[in-house]
Automatic annotation (TrEMBL):
UniProt protein name: Phosphoenolpyruvate synthase
Cofactor field: Mg(2+)
Keywords: ATP-binding, Kinase, Magnesium, Metal-binding, Nucleotide-binding, Transferase
Family annotation (PANTHER family): PHOSPHOENOLPYRUVATE SYNTHASE
Species name: Nitzschia inconspicua
């Protein structure tokens, strides 16, 4: 089986002369689908001949192109930090998929409805169920599958991957959807990985997204930008400990860095199931200014019977720092 080389260098241009626009237009479903495909094809031609490529293949990347998670991982890799081997499915693949599924116009209708109105929110949720079903039932683009095959074949035998949502609205100051979308861990087979890619896209259309956005005091009907989603597929790391580093202290000085860490996989931290150790450092001297060491009696590890993770009890609760030599 032959594959297009995955390491081709590429660059992306955000603004495209003559690019078709749907903003403010009223067109039928068939025409809208054609325009979405044309936009995706234009992006594909400018950016790269492949639908999906490795993290290190990008010369330039943008939030609109690959979404928030993938963009931050790309930046870390560019600065020399160790990042697990990864494959990115850009947002234009999502755009092509919803066009093929015939739900682009329905998505517009959902995002332009008044989510604070109970009846309108009910109609939107019914539409979102249709969107979810069609996204899942529509086959993934064959070229994406071929490039994904090549990436998976390059991993060591028996490797599992994390399939991570990478939305274009995850980290926006005005309408952050961080932690609202889904991630799937320890995926082994190509079929499960493809299903997980679609489920990442589906997670943009779950009922709680409407409830979450409509509770905001800043919410104005029709004001939320319709998000796009890339997907980040990363080789799983068997983590003894996991953590999150905030580039500024969430409760203090912007000149401080905050790190939180737990034993095992990061699910315990991001879900809030386990109280983490917390360290506050001076951003410039790296001096530890404050630390809180929690007693952790559980951790998340790989599930033996299924993919994903499970919560297990420790033989002895941890009372020492999860991380050492952090400065």
């Amino acid at each position: 089986m032959s594959h297009v080389p995955l390491m081709k260098r590429a660059s992306y241009v955000d603004t495209t002369p003559g690019r078709a626009s749907m903003r403010g237009s009223i067109i039928g479903t068939s025409a809208r689908r054609d325009i979405l495909k044309m936009q995706a094809a234009q992006d594909k031609e400018i950016f790269d001949p492949m639908l999906g490529c490795t993290l290190t293949s990008f010369e330039n990347a943008t939030l609109d192109l690959i979404g928030g998670k993938a963009l931050q991982c790309w930046r870390l890799a560019r600065h020399g930090f160790p990042v697990p081997k990864a494959f990115i499915i850009p947002t234009y693949v999502y755009s092509m998929h919803v066009a093929d599924a015939g739900v682009a116009k329905l998505i517009d209708t959902v995002y332009n409805s008044n989510w604070k109105d109970e009846k309108a929110r009910g109609r939107a949720k019914a539409s979102m169920e249709t969107i979810r079903k069609r996204i899942q039932s529509t086959p993934l683009n064959p070229e994406v599958v071929s490039n994904l095959d090549a990436f998976l074949e390059g991993l060591p035998a028996g490797s599992t991957v994390a399939v991570r949502s990478s939305g274009s609205a995850e980290d926006l100051a005005s309408q952050s959807f961080a932690e609202q979308y889904d991630t799937f861990l320890y995926k082994l087979t190509k079929e499960d990985i493809i299903d997980s890619i679609k489920l990442c896209w589906v997670s943009m259309f779950k009922d709680h997204i409407l409830d979450y956005a409509s509770r905001s005091d800043d919410y104005i009907p029709g004001s939320i930008k319709i998000p796009k989603m890339g997907v980040l597929i990363m080789k799983m790391v068997e983590a003894e400990a996991s953590g999150v580093c905030f580039s500024r202290n969430l409760w203090g000085d912007k000149k401080e860095v905050m790190i939180e860490a737990v034993l095992g996989q990061g699910e315990g931290l991001v879900s809030g199931a386990i109280t983490p150790d917390r360290f506050v450092l001076d951003k410039y001297s790296t001096e530890i200014l404050h630390s809180e060491i929690s007693t952790q009696a559980q951790k998340y590890i790989r599930s033996n019977n299924t993919d994903g993770v499970k919560l297990v009890d420790l033989d002895k609760p941890k009372d020492q720092p999860v991380m050492t030599n952090i400065n």
